[in-house]
Amino acid sequence: MRARERDGARTHEHAARRVPRRWHVLGVVAFLAAGALFVTSYVNSDGLDLRAASVTDLTSVVRQERRDTDALQTRVAELNDQVDALLAGVDDKDVDRLQRAVARAKAPAGLSGVSGPGVEVTLDDAPTEVANRALETGDPPADQLVVHQQDLQAVVNALWLGGARAITLQDQRIVSTTGIKCAGPTVILHGVPYSPPYVIKAVGDPLRLRAALGESAWIGAYREVAAAYQLGYDVESDDAMQLPGYDGPLDLRYAKPLSQAG
């Protein structure tokens, strides 16, 4: 009987010793797995904080992209000034002739600044409290409470019809290659995302410009929705507007002139 007790005690002791070893092995495996995850995260993030990307809201992303784009545009303007200065120092008749032709084409192409009287149109999404209430009740639909690209296009088209000499959106000059596109709650213009309110400025006869806005059926429909759900629509005249020239790329990315189309 005592022998059996001794054998049982040895068996229990042996099993008790095996448990710590098992947990030791599992601990080592867990440690190695955690290390592998850390290394993978570091490689995927390229040394950056992954948490920042997960908590960054869209508005912050838009602001950062705008700051980066503004810095690049400033650099482009500086380089263009250097090119102009170098060209001005070249004493060549052919170069002088081409420079004069470029200077004449800048104004109609929208590459030079324009000043004079005009109007400023501001469009904005519905207030946050209106959007939250609509989200709770489902009425009106969410797409009725925001400014769409077609609303901005309608204003720009009406101003052209009203005889505008130059137009800007968010202080970016509108030219023949400009496209206004929606991307979620923002509008993309010349590759830069913008959030509301959207400010459109036009140089021209204020009376004619206002009349053209009033005659647009699309703007009339927008104003009805704006009045019902508190979207922003405001028009102001200005006797001394100054609009910048377009300073972005001029090459077409996708379209080709008819003479080059295959």
Structural account:
With 262 residues, the chain is of the alpha+beta class. It has 2 domains: 1-55; 113-243, Alpha-Beta Plaits (2-Layer Sandwich). 55% of the residues lie in helices and 18% in strands. It has helices spanning 2-45, 50-55, 58-88, 93-109, 128-137, 149-161, 206-215, 217-229; strands spanning 114-124, 166-169, 172-173, 180-183, 186-189, 192-194, 198-203, 232-243. A 5-stranded antiparallel sheet has the order 3-2-7-1-8. It has a 3-stranded antiparallel sheet with strand order 4-5-6. β5 (186-189) and β6 (192-194) form a beta hairpin. The longest helix has 44 residues, at 2-45. The model is unreliable at 14-19 and 47-56 (pLDDT under 50). Belongs to the UPF0749 family.
Describe the protein's topology:
Elements (H helix, E strand, L loop, with lengths): L1 H44 L4 H6 L2 H31 L4 H17 L4 E11 L3 H10 L11 H13 L4 E4 L2 E2 L6 E4 L2 E4 L2 E3 L3 E6 L2 H10 L1 H13 L2 E12 L19
Antiparallel strand pairs: 1-7, 1-8, 2-3, 2-7, 4-5, 5-6
Helix pairs in contact: 6-7
